[in-house]
Prior knowledge:
Blueprint: E1 3-12, E2 15-25, E3 29-34, H1 41-48, E4 56-61, E5 64-65, H2 71-77, E6 78-81, H3 92-97, H4 110-122, H5 138-151, E7 156-160, H6 168-185, E8 188-192, H7 196-202, E9 205-210, E10 213-219, H8 225-232, E11 236-241, E12 244-249, H9 253-256
Parallel strand pairs: 3-8, 3-9, 6-7, 7-8
Antiparallel strand pairs: 1-2, 1-4, 4-5, 9-10, 11-12
Helix pairs in contact: 4-5
The chain binds adenosine-5'-triphosphate.
GO molecular function, one term: ATP hydrolysis activity
Organism: Desulfobacter hydrogenophilus
InterPro entries: AAA+_ATPase, ABC_transporter-like_ATP-bd, Metal_Ion_Import_ABC, P-loop_NTPase
Amino acid sequence: MILTVNQVGFQYRSVKILEDISFSIPRGEITVILGPNGVGKTTLLKCLNKILNPSTGRIHVKNKSLKIMDIRQIAKEISYVAQYNEAGKITVFDAVLMGRYPHIRFTATKADLKKVGSVLEHLNLTHMALKNLYELSGGELQQVAIARALVQETDILLLDEPTSSLDLKNQTRILSLVRDIVQDHNLAVIMTMHDLNSALRYADRYICLKNHTVFGAGKIEEIRSDLLTKVYGLPVEIIRHKGYPLVVPVDDAFEAA
Ligand SMILES: Nc1ncnc2c1ncn2[C@@H]1O[C@H](COP(=O)(O)OP(=O)(O)OP(=O)(O)O)[C@@H](O)[C@H]1O
């Protein structure tokens, strides 16, 4: 296991957000964290990246305690794409190059610049390399943030709602690309996602949060509609269309809502 989480709890001042969270993350798989608004998904991702310090419990990255790792060590192992991305006065190229910082000693080398160029090309972003971030749309900014995470070349990628601002074609493109990268480089991806159909299609495992803790976890193909119904408080069923699972609210769902 590349990442292990043991009995982690977190609170903002005296308000309990997470309690007794435990799971392990393998390489070569996408794990999706599911759960309703405000349940603590982003908080959990931030604990995994030491942006926030858990009040209780232990997190280990490759058997090393996150507590004793400094920012540079963490940035070599874990990249993080936040749910909302700042749009400052910096070009796309330079913003993505920032992802190389954990690897740069004094100044960026030709290899660093080449890496940025190739990731931009891979994500179809080359044409906007010299634009400033503030000139981009929300979806373009989100793809730039993903590009920055990819040039960081970490074994663990944390993605907070990575496709929330993307159109259908870009959602499919980015999630397929993430899946290919996970398989080709044996990475571990942990992402949060509200789009249950994309989650069921692209993730390998799920962790469902409810009432501050893990309510269910397992292989995504084994996720059950009654679990989702309890987690989201809305009656749903899982049907299959052309072999793909689809989560649909059942007839009386709107009354329940
Ligand atoms: N800086 C903060 N100070 C105090 N409370 C906070 C802070 N940030 C978040 N919270 C609270 O922590 C809880 C969990 O927030 P979090 O953003 O982790 O939820 P989430 O599951 O990611 O939600 P969403 O699906 O809406 O993005 C929420 O109740 C939120 O109000």
